[in-house]
Amino acid sequence: MTVGLGLMAAVYLAWTSPSLADECKNRGSLDVIFCDEDGDLVADAPKDPSKFRDPSTLVFTYTPVEDPAVYRDAFKPFQDYLEEKTGKKVIYYTVQSNSAEIEAMRSGRLHIAGFSTGPTGFAVNLAGAVPLAVKGTEKEFQGYNLIVIVKKDSPYQSLPDLKGKKVAHTSQSSNSGNLAPRALFPDQGLIPGEDYEVLYSGKHDQSVLGVNSGDYDAAPVASDVFTRMAERGVVNADDFRIIYRSPKFPTSSFAYAYDLKPELIQQIREAFRDFRFPPEMQKTFGGADRFFEITYKEDWGVIRQIAKSIGEEYDRKGLDQMAQKEAEKAAKKAAEKKKAD
């Protein structure tokens, strides 16, 4: 169900009309279809009430990391609760890439979603996503670190040891898998793209598996993904060594589409505020027992700072580049599978 880049361009052109631009007094970094007159860095609700959407069925998804089926099942209790709070049917829409997820919300096909930390900026600026929560506990949000993993029996002890080696980043938009390493590694004596060629694996789990199999010498990945893979027995944590750990970042944001009916948004916010994770859901998400309220302006400040420090822009060009990289990776994977068969 992924929309092609050609259709995306057509939609974009249709939205970038002078009349739209004239109606907005401030939009900051947002796409031309959106306004940010209250300065909170996310899209304001439409001024015209006739533009509010009140779909009979709500479409929900979670960022495409690891096995999508795991998260479709994991979020079933919350979907049921969301149905109860809104009185609407809620269906889970499996997406295969970050760009496809952003496209789906931008086109109006996706109403509520969990976006990875890095792509959240694209979702906000280009799809009208309004982040409201991350996973957490009563006291704090659930965060993660950028960690750099190598095989335990490898000779690599610090980042400078990776010069000239095979190092896998995940995707261009990923915070811990690409943006943060480019911003943070130089101070540690290692410059991505200069001291080593950046190889894109596509996803965090593929980077972990690639290091495990010897395809890569090292990989920067999200600590929470690595931990969950080890807990599920996909890899053995004792087979790896962590040679770098960053400060804490927020995990995936949960957001709703900016143009939903205000009464519906209130119901969605209440569902996120009041829901408590059942035991199995807590186990899946590393002990988090609820959704912790956040704002994009405050809690994503460090992520935007990292992106800015390396010249990454959450704009149309950046999204197209991300989509192109994801398409190339998918084509390569399909070709390898066909060859193996």
From TrEMBL:
Q: Name one Pfam family in it.
A: Phosphonate-bd
Alphabetical UniProt keywords: Signal
Q: Which GO terms describe its cellular component?
A: ATP-binding cassette (ABC) transporter complex
Which domain of life, per UniProt?
A: Bacteria
Annotated signal peptide:
1-21
Q: Which Gene3D superfamilies match?
A: Periplasmic binding protein-like II (3.40.190.10)
Q: Which GO terms describe its biological process?
A: transmembrane transport
Q: Which InterPro entries match?
A: PhnD (IPR005770)
For whether the record's keyword set contains Zinc-finger, the answer is: no
Which PANTHER family is this protein grouped with?
PHOSPHONATES-BINDING PERIPLASMIC PROTEIN
Its family remark reads: Belongs to the phosphate/phosphite/phosphonate binding protein family.
Query: What name has this protein been given in UniProt?
Result: Phosphate/phosphite/phosphonate ABC transporter substrate-binding protein
Q: Which species is this record about?
A: Sneathiella chungangensis
Species lineage, top-down? Bacteria, Pseudomonadati, Pseudomonadota, Alphaproteobacteria, Sneathiellales
